[in-house]
Amino acid sequence: DVCLITSLRDGMNLVAYEYIACHNQTDPPGVLILSEFAGAAQSLGAGSIRVNPWNLQETANAIYEALEMVPEERHALHDYAYKYVTEHTAQKWAETFLQCLQESCSDLIEVTSQVPPLLPYEELLSEWSESESRLVIVDLLECLVPDKQRKGAHSRGRPTLAARLPVELRQCLQTLAASPNTTVIITSDQDRKVLEGVVRDLPVFLAPEGCCVFRRPGEQEWQQIVEGHDVDSREEWMDGVTAVFNYFKERTPGSYIEKQEYQYRWSWTNAQFDFGSAQAREVLIHLWAGPLVNSEAEVVVGDRSITVRPHACSRAECLEKLLRQELGEEKLQKVDFALCFAVVSHRDEDVFEMVNTVLEEMQPPHSEAEPSPSRSRLGSGEVSACSTPRESSKRTGENDGSRSERKDSLLSTPNGPSPQADPDEPPPPYDWVPTAQREREQRQAAAGDDADVEEAPPKWQLEVISSAASDERSYFSCYTMSLGMKKTKAQHALPHPYHVQNLIRAMASRLPPSAKGLPTDKSA
């Protein structure tokens, strides 16, 4: 009738759990008297009578109460304890442990990431000009428009977003999007109305709001990427998050709230940095201890912003669905050049690896992969194959090719700060290429190399394969880039949006002849 456990020091008492499980079919069930010093008291305390075994009178009273307890009270205590035992199984514990471990690893991405090398400008353009099918993904407002051109901030409420693209840059994007076998996807964390107002009639894919929604080229209707059943639980935490955000908005001058269809963001862009940072820490404490307890929501800490969204709304997951659904397997298999510009929080850094992984999976079988004649740079006796950084890292013994710095890089950052320009002036010329050329000439002169000898390409990008097995490797290039010299999982970095603009201009001017509608020179 009664199970008395009077442990004076205990870690985890399994007898209490076994007693509850055995009495499920007993009518009426037995009563558990549990020492408050037992480990099980933290979980089964509400389904038992807790006692201090050092207090003999209290223990005696508990025994008497258990023996005289009516069946209704016995069932109430047992039902609570049995529900806990059946729900909190070893499988549930393992799943919770792995989930917490993954979240902890995700939070440490910024610590484990490295500052990537600068973009190999000429190598990228060379691959671009030889490509046959191209995929370009770029964060519009984050990568192409400097802050001073897109934020007219005021001290109260949300800043006005008056972003606009330079006329020449818009024409270059128009040229890229209109070229055959070229897919351009413009992403942004901003609202769809903001992105729509900036892009207007460009024939590109639009994926605002963290890629949760998208619009096809030439269409006006927005499509949903996230399925309804994946985000139905957001109603459980939305009211509580709204209350927390409104509370801190009133107490943080310069902060504002952005409510989108699938994510809710509190930004303190215009607040004083020290005070805003302290308030952001308080916001996180209130969220994790309040409305987000035991919820499926995800907290994303960005640059002066805190975003709450369902787990199914990550940037990498949504963008992957967009690529697979809209481009399809057949079109992705033909892509031999991919370029991804993104400025994301550390929790969304997986978007860089996702692009490379999807293209690797979509490559045709080795027996079907044939290197394009126009891409071959060597003689008839040798075959060139472009390897992704991940593949090359396995050959060179590096831990992570996507973030490894090249020791033979031909590029260096120009002296002084990043070039600046007025909103109505075109950006300054991209001055890294002359610097790289000067360094190349100096090394060749010092080594006494013949000027007519062509310099060998970098090992991580081009590998000479003289065996017959070389015909089994597919050929595609994938460049991932972030903005600013900071720790990231991207392969390369550009310091300023003006450099991204210049690269877009160069890509538009160096499209392959087939992309311009011109006949290719077969004899060459």
From TrEMBL:
InterPro entries: Glyco_trans_20 (IPR001830), HAD-like_sf (IPR036412), HAD_sf (IPR023214), Trehalose_PPase (IPR003337)
Residue span of region Disordered: 362-458
Pfam family, one: Glyco_transf_20
Any one GO molecular function term: trehalose-phosphatase activity
Gene3D superfamilies in the cross-refs: Glycogen Phosphorylase B, HAD superfamily/HAD-like, Trehalose-6-phosphate phosphatase related protein, domain 2
Compositionally biased residues, Basic and acidic residues: 391-409
Highest taxon in the source lineage: Eukaryota
Entry's Gene Ontology BP terms: trehalose biosynthetic process
Any one of the GO CC terms: cytosol
UniProt family annotation: In the N-terminal section; belongs to the glycosyltransferase 20 family.
UniProt-recorded name of the protein: Alpha,alpha-trehalose-phosphate synthase (UDP-forming)
Lineage of producing organism: Eukaryota, Sar, Alveolata, Dinophyceae, Suessiales
